[in-house]
């Protein structure tokens, strides 16, 4: 495939994905659907754009095409669900092939899931396996994808779209017990196993890598750790966040993964990852400390004030909030000129007895003494007079220079 054709195909698939997302959102509004369940589509927008960028710039690298495949599969499934709900339940008979369009909602997300969890770690970042020994893992992932897709296409029921069962489902499959067990237990376990093998290949690649490749893997590892950390903290935190906030934070963390993949493959500011990790650790520790201080202060003040108020008091919450606000807004320091002199002020202080040096600093040019004298007292250089006025207002330019400036 030539580069021009690759660019056209990549951005066409990206445009198709974005169009399906827009249509799915519009149909969801008409269906009075819970929009919180559609927040994941924002991650598919990022995935489509990142995949198109990578595929158009590196057509031979399968990473970009895998990301586009993931975004298109998940988007197609959601679009089919909303299309079927509108054409069958919301406004029956208004859309053609409404029942048939329910089918992608039952099977389309399996290839997208395998592209993200199995093939992407295997081929990241250069589009090649670590070695030939990992080929069986790639073929196992292909076989598992085909099996999952075949089971999902013909699986009967309406578990994905309530009220609109799978149009390709075969009810006779329910009579075969081992098939149901395979679909519900064996295939998910196999998917987890293949995913762990793929991640293991990425770990082996990181151990063997040097230079640019190590930085690329570090970017993805950083984003993956943030995503997994948030998923774990969301389960362990004693405070339950509102569902909308939880979904938004999930979307942001997953978007960070796609952005990290794009930065790594396209090598944009690749070596800034060390700065990013350092700041994340610093600000993360600071945030954790502030949260600990806040909730610890609330709990301690509640214990102190409970005997006085006879119950829980809002005063503890108010006091802890004020304490956190004080930590965020420390007392104002003196004027910067008192403890951090600028370069101009420093040069003024050093050149009280050297008018030519001061004037050259104010004007910013290297002209001779005659030129400096003309610029100091002449009306032409407004910028020089303004800078000298700042010096006068700071109290650093007393004497002849101030009189010359005022006389001009």
Structure description:
- The chain is an all-alpha fold and 408 residues long.
- It folds into three domains: 3-210, no CATH class; 288-328; 341-407, no CATH class.
- 73% of the residues lie in helices and 0% in strands.
- It contains 17 helices and no strands.
- Helix 1 (3-30) packs antiparallel against helix 2 (41-57), helix 5 runs parallel beside helix 7 and helix 7 crosses helix 8.
- The longest helix is centred in the C-terminal third of the chain and has 37 residues, at 273-309.
- It is globular and about 75 Å long.
- Mean pLDDT is 76; it is low at 335-340, 362-380 and 396-408.
Helix content: over 70%
Nearest-integer average pLDDT? 76
Distance between the termini: 72 Å
Give a count of the beta strands, DSSP E runs of length 2 or more. Answer: 0
Which class best fits the helix and strand makeup?
A: mainly alpha
Spell the H/E element sequence.
HHHHHHHHHHHHHHHHH
Number of helices: 17
Strand content: under 5%
Shape: globular
User: Which ranges are low-confidence, i.e. pLDDT below 50, for 5 or more consecutive residues?
Assistant: 335-340, 362-380, 396-408
Tally of structural domains: 3
How would you sum up the major sheet? none
Radius of gyration: 32 Å
């Amino acid at each position: 495939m030539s580069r021009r054709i690759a660019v056209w195909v990549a951005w066409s698939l990206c445009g198709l994905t974005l169009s399906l997302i827009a249509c799915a959102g519009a149909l969801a509004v008409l269906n009075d659907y819970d929009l919180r369940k559609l927040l994941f589509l924002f991650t598919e927008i990022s995935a489509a754009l990142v995949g198109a960028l990578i595929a158009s710039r590196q057509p031979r690298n399968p990473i970009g095409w895998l990301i586009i495949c993931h975004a298109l599969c998940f988007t197609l499934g959601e679009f089919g669900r909303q299309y079927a709900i509108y054409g069958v339940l919301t406004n029956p008979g208004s859309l053609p092939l409404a029942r048939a369009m329910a089918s992608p909602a039952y099977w389309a997300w399996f290839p997208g899931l395998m592209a993200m969890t199995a093939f992407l770690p295997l081929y990241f970042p250069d589009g090649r396996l670590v070695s030939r020994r990992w080929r069986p893992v790639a073929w196992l992932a292909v076989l598992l994808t085909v099996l999952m897709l075949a089971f999902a296409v013909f699986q009967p029921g309406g578990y994905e779209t309530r009220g609109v069962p799978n149009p390709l489902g075969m009810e006779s499959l329910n009579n075969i017990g081992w098939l149901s067990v395979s679909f519900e237990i064996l295939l998910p376990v196999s998917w987890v196993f293949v995913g762990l093998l793929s991640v293991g290949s990425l770990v082996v690649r990181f151990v063997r890598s040097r230079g640019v490749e190590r930085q690329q893997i570090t970017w993805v590892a950083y984003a993956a750790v943030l995503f997994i950390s948030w998923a774990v903290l969301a389960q362990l935190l004693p405070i339950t966040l509102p569902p909308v906030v939880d979904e938004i934070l999930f979307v942001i963390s997953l978007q960070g993964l796609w952005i990290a993949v794009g930065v790594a493959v396209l090598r944009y500011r690749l070596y800034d990852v060390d700065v990013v990790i350092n700041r994340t650790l610093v600000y993360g520790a600071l945030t954790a400390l502030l949260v600990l201080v806040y909730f610890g202060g609330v709990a301690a003040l509640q214990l102190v004030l409970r005997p006085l108020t006879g119950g829980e008091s809002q005063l503890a919450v108010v006091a802890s909030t004020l304490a956190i606000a004080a930590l965020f807004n420390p007392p104002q320091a003196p004027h910067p000129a008192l403890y951090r002199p600028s370069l101009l002020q420093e040069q003024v202080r050093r050149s009280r007895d050297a008018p030519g040096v001061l004037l050259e600093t104010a004007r910013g040019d290297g002209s001779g003494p005659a030129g400096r004298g003309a610029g100091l007292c002449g009306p032409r250089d407004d910028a020089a007079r303004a800078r000298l006025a700042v010096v006068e207002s700071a109290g650093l330019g007393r004497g002849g220079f101030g009189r010359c400036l005022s006389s001009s």
